[in-house]
Amino acid sequence: METVNQKPNIRSLSLAELEHFFTSAGEKPYRARQVGEWLWKKSAWSFDEMTSLSIEIRKLLEENFNINHLTVSNQQVSSDRTIKNAFRLYDGNTIEGVLIPTTKRMTACVSSQVGCSLTCKFCATGKLERIRNLEADEIYDQVVVISRQATEKYSKPLTNIVYMGMGEPLLNYQNVLQSIEKITSQSGLGMAQKRITVSTAGIAKMICKLGDDKVKFNLALSLHAASDEKRSSIMPINDSNSLASLKDALRYYYEKTGNPVTYEYIIFKNFNDSIKDAEELARFCGVVPSKVNIIEYNATGDGLFNKADEDRTMAFRNYLESRRITAKIRRSRGRDIDAACGQLANKFPSPLERG
Ligand code: SAH
Q: Which of 42, 208, 245, 311 has minimal Cβ neighbours within 10 Å of its Cβ?
């Protein structure tokens, strides 16, 4: 890892702190708001771009701060038009973010941590070590870059953001919420809270915290099995966050926010694809108002799991619908470039392999 320039990251300062910086330097405090606008609303990555500020002020900022922006270090486009980006962070670490275009939507899938600590058995990111949390501005930058790709490549604005890239967002709670604050604020990107979904492997305590904070964005829980024994065998986090504790947390969350919850359920061949599994899931769905996304399994190269057969998948979905549960089958996107759910592992082809 390279040496990092030690000047503070200007985007980690609050408006009040920036005002204080300007007044201590003998400048007018309103400069802080101007700079804030450049940093967030206009996503400036250099002080030079801040043309409404005098050269002296730009120099003052340059001497005192860094803008720790990321850069796109690699990009792949799938045959289904999904774009996977490798983002190089200011300290040399790499993460990934994906643009998923469909007929109705332009969705950005963003990472919240470098690596992940949860070791879910079916997930490629789970095989990487957790290195560190992303800062709010690093999450924000992913959205800005992917949003530009949507308009430049597909002539459509970004419609949705999902925190389903690398990492566990609820283990980076404060920065994730701060990033959402900036993405939705009028002084940032001005996107609607309802267009944002945070997906968690299930940290009961933090689901309750979302309730206390009365969040307005959507919550998705990666369930994948509705019995503790099965769930623990594929998701070690279930040992300390049992289904009973998740149910309690979800009730609390719903009581506080009134938001329904989405359950993600990867359907694995001969593991969780029987009608008995569907019955257990249906019972779990009784806890709070909810819907289910049945997710096709994407191979991660270890041969441990297989994609469920089509007829079993349909029977599973039909059973849930017979129990009046809304269930949709989510087809995989970007699989040919390892951009699909669970495939993000910084595996870009080397320049020689690229065609
Ligand atoms: N840590 C968060 C967000 C990242 S994972 C979470 O667990 O929800 C985003 C989604 O992709 C989760 O539902 C996850 O379970 C799913 N996923 C992981 N590996 C997958 C795979 N190999 N195939 C399909 N979906 C996968």
A: 311
